[in-house]
Amino acid sequence: MKVTVSRKAHFNAAHRLYRNDWDFEKNEAIFGKCNNPHFHGHNYELIVSVTGNIDPETGYVIDMKVLKNIIKNEVEDAFDHKNLNIEVIEFKTLNPTAENIAVVIYNKIKPLLDNSLDLEITLYETPRNFVSYSGK
Amino acid sequence: MKVTVSRKAHFNAAHRLYRNDWDFEKNEAIFGKCNNPHFHGHNYELIVSVTGNIDPETGYVIDMKVLKNIIKNEVEDAFDHKNLNIEVIEFKTLNPTAENIAVVIYNKIKPLLDNSLDLEITLYETPRNFVSYSGK
Amino acid sequence: MKVTVSRKAHFNAAHRLYRNDWDFEKNEAIFGKCNNPHFHGHNYELIVSVTGNIDPETGYVIDMKVLKNIIKNEVEDAFDHKNLNIEVIEFKTLNPTAENIAVVIYNKIKPLLDNSLDLEITLYETPRNFVSYSGK
Amino acid sequence: MKVTVSRKAHFNAAHRLYRNDWDFEKNEAIFGKCNNPHFHGHNYELIVSVTGNIDPETGYVIDMKVLKNIIKNEVEDAFDHKNLNIEVIEFKTLNPTAENIAVVIYNKIKPLLDNSLDLEITLYETPRNFVSYSGK
Amino acid sequence: MKVTVSRKAHFNAAHRLYRNDWDFEKNEAIFGKCNNPHFHGHNYELIVSVTGNIDPETGYVIDMKVLKNIIKNEVEDAFDHKNLNIEVIEFKTLNPTAENIAVVIYNKIKPLLDNSLDLEITLYETPRNFVSYSGK
Amino acid sequence: MKVTVSRKAHFNAAHRLYRNDWDFEKNEAIFGKCNNPHFHGHNYELIVSVTGNIDPETGYVIDMKVLKNIIKNEVEDAFDHKNLNIEVIEFKTLNPTAENIAVVIYNKIKPLLDNSLDLEITLYETPRNFVSYSGK
């Protein structure tokens, strides 16, 4: 009896999409306005979804208080009110696209969960654009 | 050609998370504020999703009016403005966590659907916490 | 140059609408399902709006961190995961309708704000029903 | 490393549910208010979800600007502010139920995507009713 | 102690914006896509807001069950799944813009309320466009 | 017969809250995380509300296509995907708090509207924090 439990969270950050090994024209052609060298930013809305069996004793798949703390430590404290390119080590050499941010968040949270649990990360970069990743 | 059709509904209810066979301290340690003996409550938002083939005659997977009535009879009339622990028979001996409520709703609706249809229940306990269950 | 700044917050609670000095039939006639003696509950979504001049030094009407703390102390800590009728002193003798809850919240927050600031409370009892009160 | 990227869009349209080869009574019995011969209408909200590998050069599954243009050309320009039954060729002989509209949108967009990409269409007919189709 | 209570409702309808006494070119120039002679449509989301004193006996400004019935009788039954231009008498000679629809709804509901109550109508034509009218 | 018509729009931007004439410690004390010298960012959601009489010929207070273009020219093209502090001239010497951004937007749009029309700007900095300004 597998149930998925999901928790929403959010963080605000600045970022820029570009590659150091491309010249400005190529970055502009591929990343357009997202290549602004002065950065732009987003309110990222995050959904962390954990799938597993219901513990028959508690009726929980995972204690939401535990999951909330993991999200706070791994995502909010690390990314909130930060410049992702400059201040978040994972994006020193990785373009902070929504896709890559979702993968990074997945890789930070997955090892902290019991092995029997599946994880999916959904990340809204804007209310109109979002991505999801489940480690497959 | 499998399509999933979803219908939203809602109900308001009081509940308390605890186990009779645990003492107050253990209930407090596990369920925290949710163990309040005077109860607290939620606006539960429900999404009922039914997957099946499109009927080539009508263009429907299932008539939404039929699905709406099933939800009204099985969920809204049974749970709305109720105390789940005291007034809903399924939770006399089952902790009314969001996970367990989703499973109970699934088990009430599934037998009323044509055998060829799959069912998924998504239940928002708050706008920030939700669960889903599809009978697997 | 008056600007209104608003902050959202939320709390979950159980309640019941009834009057001690009416018999059950009259309570049932007036309050319907909300008169359930076993209580029901809601996710209350709250918007606290403060109107005043922009401080030319900071660009703030009020520091959101200050406002967030006031809401936490006066509303969330007092109401969240509580039974409003039994556990919140203001509703011992006052029916916890959305209207009355909004007035109580207004009366708790207003004295903590600078005298030059106006206050409006908007309270969603459900996503479909809400009230607002601005002390007039 | 499969990631799903989703883009929201919308269009407003009139439609009517009925079959030419049924008499009015049968159409009324099956389609109810949706059989109004003078039409009614909706704000359709659309989510187009594309699943594939992250391009290690760009960090994109698909360039959102490309996806946005496909949606504009295939869906918005074709359906927005239109009468689906009368003005959209796919619904001359196909009932414009939400299910069928989702399949039509899928069939228009899928051939324009790289073969390695999976596609899912989610279509909200109202904020309370929605369907999804992924070509299976 | 004036409190405003609000109730959400919705209806789906087809409409067309044009004037009989203008030729097609002038209608096209002013109303653009909204002049489509085959109609288009919307999910109209409605907020009905009533302002008045709290009744000290009940704690209500107005009984929501009463307000809900007024909205059902005056708006939902009259407009839902209808073609506004053809089937709703108020729009036989009045262009069904969001502005005019809001005024019509106001004029239908206001006489049914106690004289001491103020009324405001907010009408979303789409999630991005909305109007409000309070009889001033 | 005054009606208010509102249009939603959005832009993404980076910003930093601080004053040049304060040292880092004072900026940190007042602006906290918002003083990050590497910037952070937001998805700003904007509501532009215009109040006036309904034109009896068209049924419009203002043509939404006209209002949409004003918002595009004055706000989206000027602020979207920009660093507000560095790239938007109005914030060279003005702290880009939500309050100040709302006033700047008001001052850009008001002169472009007919004198008889009132204007209100509502700006969501996050889904939880928003401000409004109507020139009073």
Please describe what this structure looks like.
Six copies of one chain form a homohexamer. The first copy, chain A, has helices at 24-31, 64-79, 84-87, 98-109, and strands spanning 2-15, 40-53, 82-83, 118-126, 129-133. Chain A is an alpha+beta fold and 136 residues long. Chain A has a single domain, classed as 6-pyruvoyl tetrahydropterin synthase/QueD (Tetrahydropterin Synthase, Chain A), CATH 3.30.479. In chain A, strands 3-1-2-4-5 form a five-stranded mixed sheet. In chain A, strand 4 (118-126) and strand 5 (129-133) form a beta hairpin. Chain A starts with a strand and ends with a strand. The model of chain A has no long low-confidence stretch (mean pLDDT 97). Chains in contact: A-B, A-D, A-F, B-C, B-D, C-E, C-F, D-E, E-F. Chain A binds chain F through residues 10, 12-15, 33-34, 36, 38-43, 45, 80-83, 86-87, 126-127, and chain F through 10, 12-15, 33-34, 36, 38-43, 45, 80-83, 86-87, 126-127.
Key features?
homohexamer; 136 residues; alpha+beta; Tetrahydropterin Synthase, Chain A; 5-stranded mixed β-sheet; 4 helices
Shape of chain A: elongated
The pLDDT mean of chain A sits at 97
> By CATH's scheme, which homologous superfamily of chain A applies?
6-pyruvoyl tetrahydropterin synthase/QueD
Per CATH, the architecture of chain A is 2-Layer Sandwich
Beginning-to-end CA distance, first to last residue of chain A: 22 Å
Identify the most extensive interface between protein chains.
A-F, 23 and 23 residues
Please compute the radius of gyration of chain A using only Cα atoms: 17 Å
Q: According to CATH, what is the topology of chain A?
A: Tetrahydropterin Synthase, Chain A
Neighbour order of strands in the largest sheet of chain A: 3-1-2-4-5
Portion in strands of chain A: 25-35%
Q: Which class of chain A in CATH terms?
A: Alpha Beta
**What order do the SSEs of chain A take from the amino end to the carboxyl end, as H and E?**
EHEHEHHEE
The total count of strands of chain A amounts to 5
Flag low-confidence runs of chain A. none
The oligomerization state is homohexamer
Q: Can you tell me the number of structural domains of chain A?
A: 1
Determine the fraction of residues in helical runs of chain A and give it as a percent range. Answer: 25-40%
Helix-strand category of chain A: alpha+beta
Largest sheet of chain A, if any? 5 strands, mixed
